[in-house]
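Inputs:
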Amino acid sequence: MKNKLDALMQTNDLEAIIVVGPGQHNPAMVYMTGGGHLTNADLIKKRGESAVLFHYPMERDEAAKSGLKTKNLSDYNYTELLKRSDGDNLKAIVNRYQIMLTELGITSGNVALYGRSDIGLNFAVFSALQKEMPGLNFIGEVDNSVLMLARMTKDDPEVERIRKMGIITTQVVGLVADFITSKKEKNGLLVNRDGIPVRIGEVKNRINIWLSERGADNPEGTIFAIGHDAGVPHSSGNPTDPLKLGQTIVFDIFPCEAGGGYFYDFTRTWCLGYAPDAVLALYEDVLSTYTKVTQALQAGRSFKYYQQMTCELFSAQGHPTIKEDPQTQQGYVHSLGHGIGLNIHERPWSGISSDEKDCLIPGSVFTIEPGLYYPDRGMGVRLENSFWVCPDGKIDMLAEYPMDLVLPVKKI
Amino acid sequence: MKNKLDALMQTNDLEAIIVVGPGQHNPAMVYMTGGGHLTNADLIKKRGESAVLFHYPMERDEAAKSGLKTKNLSDYNYTELLKRSDGDNLKAIVNRYQIMLTELGITSGNVALYGRSDIGLNFAVFSALQKEMPGLNFIGEVDNSVLMLARMTKDDPEVERIRKMGIITTQVVGLVADFITSKKEKNGLLVNRDGIPVRIGEVKNRINIWLSERGADNPEGTIFAIGHDAGVPHSSGNPTDPLKLGQTIVFDIFPCEAGGGYFYDFTRTWCLGYAPDAVLALYEDVLSTYTKVTQALQAGRSFKYYQQMTCELFSAQGHPTIKEDPQTQQGYVHSLGHGIGLNIHERPWSGISSDEKDCLIPGSVFTIEPGLYYPDRGMGVRLENSFWVCPDGKIDMLAEYPMDLVLPVKKI
């Protein structure tokens, strides 16, 4: 949680943090500022002091909305800085950072870098700044990013925002189910009233409209993948594919608040009209594992404990898993879940080699999404819900929705 | 254009380029791959050779859609790499890059870095890789990025995609105008049938739905700012503000193709019901300058030539401009326009200190958007259209829409 940031900076020996990039669709910046229409900005926080948001003059009112201490970049007179560096933009930018950091009293110690932005420009800038300010040590954290550690547990207002996205998400899933079951079957395909097949692209367009009507963004698109594609976990589905009856459809939907806020993550597997025996058997294996794992969830355990359990359950059912063969592309091929927040995938991680810090404690918000994949047999099944560990340690599902496999479809 | 990439790499002495990050909403990656549902990937291109797209195993089919040569990251056995580096993820990632680059024969020369991704992680990775591969020189280009130079001119399919976004954009602007003029006035405010004021948030929600219905994303939101906010160029507008009659509304809309493709950029200034004399005078100054500048546009000239012209025209009308006072927040406070493409703002730049390379030549796609701002007087006016320099040097506006200031509104 954000109120632990100073303590975490202390533990990890950080003197300051710098977040760069736009105000939207940039998780670190959204976390620190609350979002807003900033084309590009810098947020600098010294340990134990309030963060300062540096903004361009045309965006002064947008920056003020953050409620943070703000500073107008025009105060640094870039034209003059550029003159002094003989027109070299890199030198002028580096010089401006040097002045900004010095003004904030940040002249020695470790400074961690964050933000989703242009990596080339920032590599050049911070490499050059490192040379100009040898007392500072600019670092990129790989394993235990302080900001990700803070974000790994959510406070109540964050949980409420994620829960609201869960309600929107399941509403839209319901509309997709209504849309599909309002259609008929002809020659094994789902068709419109005129007999023309419904295609995946049409379903995805409707999903975007229904999300948009509810104030949600869908920056990463939706997985709505059928048959072979359902057997490859991240295949997003071919827009021109028709919806064949009796084939698995993996429907994985992960929208966020408008402007790049909190995400939700949710998956169902559907089979239109009927489920062949092999599909039904696969679905029952996933559902039984999902049920056992979610019933076993306890606050305080490491997330990978449940990945281990999932592998064992699927193994006992006779499926290959990544535990025995990390390269397998059949059976259980991914990890059990992940944290959700301003990133669709964030800590805690559930992979077998994840850190001991990745555990389920009060404030954790995470997905449980076991799945089985057989691309060569043209099928895949995944079931996913998102959960929250409440302050009292109870595990709470954030949005309810039926787990049914078969969506009934009538003949034309 | 992309077919000039090898020549540009030669000129700028680049042995290779590396693009990192997701497959969507990541301009450099979208340019090289065409987009697609890749959570995270690496694209590496050696000069004179085809690009190779390195992807995660679950995303193999998504990667294949790019039509590029692909390589599965699972071939590098990360578990084994991690073991060899005693569980240090940074070392394992660096080691994997080292193997990948060596396999592609990239062992000496300059390597430029691109991609919108986590700057901390990438700063750490490429700083460490630099030490492991001293024959290579990893660089971030600040002023003359080879990829931005290639992207600065568009080929015909790119222009058609931008033009299509222009049609969608102006359709939605028309729907907003229809929506507003279907409402009535009461006590100086635009109201719904029940007499309750229409608020900016309601207009913006409808814009998102109408864009979504047409297959467009709106990742950066819309500027729909009234009164004082219209006087601050990048204020996006307060959702709870009602629509007052007789006040300037700056409506700047810049959606992109779904998944983070090509943008369009378009602005109108509206005044509901009537325009007070001071607003009309301001609008006429902007329109007259807009008209003179667009009529003077000629292929081959530098973009800043027209910025110069715009400053002179506004000065002659008696407005302060950034030419005389770079810090001014009244009058003409920004540059004339910018290139548009996979970034909403990209080269060519029109600022007074922009490069000689930033000129309007066949393939350039750019905005012209003069504006005048008086926040203390509660008003601002900006007019913007987007243009293309055709192969024969003709200048073509990409989407037509009336320039009218006043939207008529009836009393309730």
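Chain A touches chain B through 75 residues (CB under 8 Å). Flag for discussion at group meeting.
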